[in-house]
Design goal:
Elements (H helix, E strand, L loop, with lengths): L10 H7 L4 E8 L5 E5 L4 E4 L2 E6 L4 H8 L2 E8 L3 E13 L3 H7 L2 H4 L8 E10 L3 E2 L2 H17 L11 H8 L4 E7 L5 E5 L4 E2 L4 E5 L4 H5 L6 E7 L5 E14 L2 E13 L6 E4 L11
């Protein structure tokens, strides 16, 4: 599918993306040049030429955009329509119409523990326009991935993924997305819901859904894979892209993982490589 390249949001786009019931993803680039994906339910178009999100928890994406303002966004509505695009971070604010809008949403208005304390703004570069998630292709791609995973030769050398993460990523109804950074400095988010674990170190996915975008990924590039359940459980993985390989008669893309991050509260943090527990010295 060839997507549009639009430079402004329509009134319909703005109204649709401002729904509280949606999935919003922001891809950023960290100071080491590595891609990062964050789930931001507050992400929305706030004018024809701007997007924003409201911050109520701390996280790496808020730090990443301060040093690398080029970002990519994906918004998916409950009826499986997508908006994808690029944007440049410009500034943040602790007041204004968007600040008031967020804090009047029932989730924050009636929450006794936290509210939105900062709004981050981006200038829109371009976006795809609304288009449907390619569910038919994704279903067939997921079946092909499952066959390739089951019948394919295992490659693992390290146990990067624990049992919970492997089971989570192998659930066909959980959502998966990947991101990598292009030569012009912008990250790209690609829906890869068909992705599954080949073993405890590798992610495998059939290329039969979003084929052109997957084939455009340069082998050897650093990329991340974000897994998300509608129960709001999620996990972020990162590693090297090994390119497209033929497995069990299917063209599949392979990622060799070397990093796992838990974005979920109450204690987000790195899972792999395991970090040494440090004693508390200040209280």
């Amino acid at each position: 599918m060839t997507m549009q390249s639009l430079t402004s949001f329509s009134t319909e786009d703005i109204q649709a993306t401002q729904s509280a019931m949606k999935i919003g993803l922001l891809a950023t680039v960290n100071p080491q040049g590595l891609p990062h994906i964050t789930m931001l339910s507050s992400l929305m178009a706030c004018s024809p030429h701007k997007i924003c999100f409201g911050q109520f928890t701390e996280g790496e994406s808020k730090l990443n955009i301060l040093t690398h303002p080029k970002a990519c966004f994906l918004i998916m509505s409950l009826d499986r329509n997508l908006w994808r695009g690029r944007a440049d971070y410009t500034h943040s604010s602790k007041s204004g119409p968007e600040f008031d809008f967020y804090n009047n949403i029932p989730m924050f208005r009636y929450n006794a523990y936290f509210g939105v304390h900062t709004v981050y703004y981006f200038d829109l570069v371009s976006h795809s326009g609304k288009y449907p998630l390619a569910m038919n292709r994704i279903i067939f791609a997921a079946i092909k991935t499952m066959l390739a995973r089951t019948l394919g030769r295992k490659l693992e050398q390290k146990i990067v993924l624990n049992d919970w993460t492997r089971a989570f990523l192998n659930k066909l109804d959980n959502l998966k997305f990947l991101a990598y950074t292009t030569q012009d400095g912008y990250p790209v988010i690609i829906p890869t819901i068909q992705a599954q674990c080949l073993d405890a170190q590798h992610i495998i996915l059939s290329t039969s859904a979003y084929r052109e975008e997957i084939e455009a990924i340069p082998p050897g590039v650093d990329l991340c894979v974000f897994g998300l359940a509608l129960s709001m459980e999620d996990v972020l993985l990162r590693g090297k892209y090994l390119g497209i390989q033929r497995k069990s008669g299917f063209n599949t893309a392979l990622v060799e993982l070397d990093w796992v991050y838990n974005p979920m509260p109450p204690v987000p943090g790195q899972i792999y490589p395991p970090q040494e527990i440090q004693p508390v010295k200040q209280f």
